[in-house]
Write a structure and sequence with these properties.
Layout (H helix, E strand, L loop, with lengths): L3 E6 L1 H5 L12 E2 L2 E2 H4 L2 H6 L1 H17 L4 H8 L5 E6 L5 H5 L4 E3 L2 E8 L6 E3 L17 E5 L9 H9 L3 E5 L20 E5 L12 E4 L3 H16 L1
Parallel strand pairs: 1-4, 1-9, 4-5, 9-10, 10-11
Antiparallel strand pairs: 2-3, 6-7, 6-8
Helix pairs in contact: 5-8
């Protein structure tokens, strides 16, 4: 029976595809303050600004291509039972070939109703604008979990992590909560790998192996090792 592998990815994976992260620019995201573009308050104050900000991010995502880390993660599915859990809002895992991807913080290429959160739509093209409405007539917003909002997929993510036999944590500072707490839910017996240039051992986490490399370099090597050892 195939081993259960859970892959938890953060901004460091997509950064190598040219997608910028706000933590790399002193708390600014493309010169915007997070409070002005990525909170419910920002949406209420200036929805046009928020939509424009995410339109620019969406254009960046569409132009980006999956890198070697995304491709190596997708390759794992040939040999293991794989669940990807990502903090990223892009679709690079899917475009690399990963079939089971859980987005903790939403998906930038989708919109949802401001009236009924369960009404989610794929965005055709690059832009979502004022006047774009759901079937019930309410303005559509980006399908993003903003700062200050609950993370609906967290419970499912915890369940997958608890059942993991092998856990890969890739390209994340483990500083954005509640997602960063996921590693705490992994069983003591599970084998854990932390891949990031700034990675370090975490007290209280058993069977943790640290690989201080960028995702595009470290992940393909690790994937080959896992296939060689467990398949």
């Amino acid at each position: 029976m195939k081993k259960k592998v859970v892959v938890f990815t953060g901004a460091g994976v997509s950064a190598e595809s040219g997608i910028n992260t706000f933590r790399d620019s002193g708390g600014l995201w493309e010169q915007y303050r997070i409070e002005d573009v990525a909170t419910p308050e920002a949406w209420r104050k200036d929805p046009a600004l928020v939509l424009d900000f995410y339109n620019q991010r969406r254009k960046q995502v569409i132009k980006a291509e999956p890198n070697d880390a995304h491709k190596a993660i997708a390759q794992l599915e040939k040999y293991f039972q794989v669940q990807v859990i990502t903090q990223n809002i892009d679709d690079l895992h899917e475009r690399a070939g990963s079939k089971r991807v859980l987005h903790l913080h939403g998906e930038i290429r989708k919109s949802r109703s401001t009236l009924s959160p369960n009404l989610v739509y794929k965005i055709v093209g690059e832009e979502l604008n004022i006047g774009d409405k759901c079937e019930k007539g309410s303005q559509l917003r980006p399908h993003i979990v903003w700062f200050g909002e609950m993370v609906p997929a967290m419970e499912e993510a915890v369940m997958h992590t608890q059942n993991a036999e092998i856990l890969l944590v890739i390209g994340t500072s483990l500083e954005v909560y509640p997602a960063a707490s996921l590693v705490q839910f992994a069983s003591e017996e599970s084998i854990k790998y932390l891949i990031d240039p700034k990675a370090h051992l975490i007290s209280g986490i058993d069977n943790l192996h640290v690989i201080q490399k960028k995702a595009g370099e470290g992940v393909p090597v690790l994937v080959k090792e896992l296939i060689k050892e467990y398949v």
